[in-house]
TrEMBL record:
GO terms for molecular function: guanine deaminase activity; zinc ion binding. It comes from Propioniciclava tarda. GO terms for biological process: guanine metabolic process. It is an enzyme of class 3 (hydrolase). It comes from the Bacteria. This is Guanine deaminase.
Length: 428
């Protein structure tokens, strides 16, 4: 058992439905076997556990581990290719790099860099777009297992549009995916995610094979892209004769374990389908800005009852930090005027933690309640940095959380735990 002492802030309930920040200043959280068994004011709580080891997390804030609901493992090294819209960016930057992962040694190197980047950003759970190459997906799962993070990922499949080395067939995709799922799904904190790249690069036969894979792997997730870019949407509609959400829905791929990235340009009918299926959307505001994809209709998602959370969408996104995604989301919503929703500390923290855990089907993560896994991040900036000054002068914990989103990043992540085990320690 371990008793952690610090200022704990989380947001367990949906702030779009009345939830608020919960703060525990000068508090104690008691963890046994990775699970939070007690929490309360330090003086009172520590009296109940007088002989247990104590960990001081003085200064800064302790928040739930961040959840990244959409991030591409093979794209780490193409972050920062600014100034191109989606289809040109894929062609010139992302896809040439993704083809390099055909080499297992190269993939192993990227996999280590990738999980290292997640953990340094305070991300404790992620739904990761894998690679088109099964060997590269093995490398990712191996690195993820060693890191201690909660990772869902899978083989990315396409059978058209993309360069030939990235293509598969319905039959081969099924065999490759089932092999990977057998090796990794349900092993420790790892889960398999069925992952067609996007409808544009998939035939109906391949999407049907995705449905078959899912049926064969109970508990697997489903993820892909939807409604990201206007030119892309027109092509999908012409190719399938249905709206973009419908291309997945008609194969039965949308349910409560499905996460579709972007959804920047949905119709009301598509939002209604997503709501009725209980599927979630990964909102990736930095990527939407970097590729000029558009302004996310967050208010329409709330009003339609569609679940959503945040994703970094590395490498179209520009960092692994969910703090930065929160800030960009807040900026974009304000710029949308009456069509946007104001995002302050509570919805930002909720979107970066509990909403993401919910989207990924992790009911015991995302907040710091008794009974939950101790997945946590100690945000403690280096002394003298602007965030350090800001936090020492914050009006209250809500103001402190706002300041963390405004100024924080990976360098402010001091220590990270998953299931009570420390997975990162900056050590200064
Ligand atoms: Zn993406």
């Amino acid at each position: 058992m371990t008793i952690y002492r610090g200022t704990f802030v989380d947001c367990p309930d949906d702030p779009f439905a009345g939830g608020a920040l919960r703060t525990l200043t000068e508090g104690a959280i008691v963890v046994r076997d990775g699970v939070i068994v007690a929490r309360g004011p330090w003086d009172v709580t520590v009296a109940d556990f007088p002989d247990e080891p104590r960990v001081e997390l003085t200064g800064g804030l302790v928040v739930p581990g961040f959840v990244d609901t959409h991030v591409h493992y093979p794209q780490l090294r193409v972050i920062g290719a600014l100034g191109r819209p989606l289809l040109e960016w894929l062609d010139k930057r992302a896809l040439p790099e993704e083809m390099r992962l055909a080499d297992d040694d190269y993939a192993a190197e990227i996999a280590l860099e990738f999980v290292g980047s997640l953990v340094r950003a305070g991300t404790t759970s992620a739904l990761v777009f894998g690679s088109h190459f099964p060997g590269a997906v093995d490398q990712l799962f191996a690195a993820a297992e060693a890191s201690g993070l909660r990772i869902a990922s899978g083989l990315v499949v396409s059978d058209g549009v993309l360069p030939e080395p990235l293509l598969t067939t319905a039959e081969r995709s099924l065999a490759d995916a089932l092999g990977l799922a057998e090796r990794w799904h349900g092993r420790g904190r790892l889960r398999y995610a069925v992952t067609p790249r996007f409808s544009l690069s998939c035939s109906d036969a391949l999407l049907a094979a995705c449905a078959e894979t899912r049926a064969a792997v109970p508990g697997s997730l489903f993820t892909s892209h939807v409604n990201e870019n206007v030119a892309e949407i027109r092509q999908v509609e012409a190719q399938f004769g249905t709206d973009y959400v419908g291309t997945y829905d008609r194969h039965g791929l949308l349910d409560q374990r499905s996460v579709l990235a972007h959804n920047v340009h949905p119709t009301d009918a598509e939002l209604a389908v997503l709501a009725s299926r209980g599927s979630a959307v990964a909102h990736c505001p930095c990527s939407n800005s970097a590729l000029g994809s558009g302004m996310f209709p967050l208010r329409r998602h709330v009003e339609a009852g569609v679940r959503f959370a945040l994703g970094t969408d590395v490498g179209a996104g520009v960092s692994f930090s969910l703090l930065r995604e929160g800030l960009q989301a807040a900026f974009m919503q304000l710029l949308m005027g009456a069509e946007g929703l104001r995002l302050n500390a509570a919805p930002l923290l909720w979107l970066a933690t509990k909403a993401g855990a919910s989207a990924l089907g992790l009911s015991d993560a995302g907040d710091l309640s008794v009974g939950q896994q101790f997945d946590a991040v100690w945000l403690s900036p280096v002394e003298g940095t602007t965030l350090d000054i800001a936090l020492r002068n914050a009006a209250d914990e809500g103001d402190a959380v706002s300041k963390v989103f405004a100024l924080g990043g990976s360098s402010d992540v001091r220590r990270v735990w998953v299931g009570g085990g420390e997975v990162w320690n900056r050590r200064h």
